[in-house]
Write a structure and sequence with these properties.
This protein is an alpha+beta fold and 96 residues long. It is built from four helices and four strands; from the N terminus they run βααββαβα. It has one domain: Alpha-Beta Plaits, CATH 3.30.70.60. Helices cover 43% and strands 32% of the residues.
């Protein structure tokens, strides 16, 4: 499965939800898995983003659907990046 990085920023609605129910974070993670993704790791961070989530998905279409589904709820803004393993990246360069 391919790996992706999701950078998330809570909206004011999302911050209020997390304040009232911090476990909601893990509920969303299980919803991601129901949509075909797998959470590898997740971090709350300081700075321009509130969370960094590393996930696996079978393809770009699946992770796009996950990102849009979660983002459409209005509680979080998401930037999703495809991640390429460094060894695979080097191998790809050498094969050209």
């Amino acid at each position: 499965m391919a790996r992706y990085i999701m950078l998330s920023t809570l909206t004011s609605q999302g911050a209020e939800t997390i304040k009232k129910d911090p476990e909601r974070i893990k509920q969303v993670n299980s919803e991601v898995e129901k949509m075909g993704g797998k959470i590898v790791s997740q971090y709350a961070v300081l700075g321009p983003y509130d969370f960094i989530t590393i996930l696996e998905a079978p393809d770009n279409e699946t992770v796009t659907r996950i990102s849009l589904e979660i983002g459409a709820r209005g509680s979080v803004k998401i930037l999703t990046l495809a991640a390429v393993d460094v060894d695979d990246f080097i191998k790809g360069i050498k094969n050209k």
